[in-house]
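<amino_acid_chain>
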Amino acid sequence: MKLDILAFGAHPDDVELGCGATIAKEVSLGKQVGIVDLTQGELGTRGSAAIRKVEATNAAEVLGVNVRENLKFRDGFFVNDEAHQLEIIKMIRKYRPEIVLCNAIDDRHIDHSKGSKVVSDACFLSGLRKIETSIDGVNQEAWRPKVVYHYIQWKNIEPDFVVDVTGFMDKKVASVMAYSTQFFDTNSKEPSTPITSKNFLDSITYRAQDLGRLINKDFAEGFTVERYLAVNTLEDLI
């Protein structure tokens, strides 16, 4: 299946938190979108790998994406090496996206920056035809996405551009709350973490609202880039 956009996250819920509204908007515009989770989030304080799998499936249905896969890298301990890069390359060549979205380049959780770098490196390497990969015995052709964009996570990194996501925040919040074990729940008996507070749950909306304010829209999501952005004319800007 050829996808327009392939979003990678170090953990199930990274994509939803970082760019869920953007994905929902792109799906509404007819784009073919997929999600690849690098780990199962098995080291998370709450829940389990099995529970997170169900939650991720439910979140994908909320966003309306075409496919979701999990590479089952070791949560907390995966590294940016050849073995891990090759598994990501297989996904890139399988889905042949024009755009790749991935973790923040610098963030509180160590897996986020690691995930950002390994995906970015794999996007480049995937375009080298002398790197041979196959799935189910079928050789894959080289493919390099046109662009790699990094969504913003825990830290308030200054975005290079923002996407107007007005009208799609309800789907973003619903996709996040599909991870019922992970976020604010007054009835939960599980230990508290930085992402289980009411403030963090509220931040999903108020951070998007603040970015929207800066572009005279209701809500926006921010991204950073690896190379200059380009437009055909000044009218491409909103």
Notes: The longest strand covers residues 33-39.
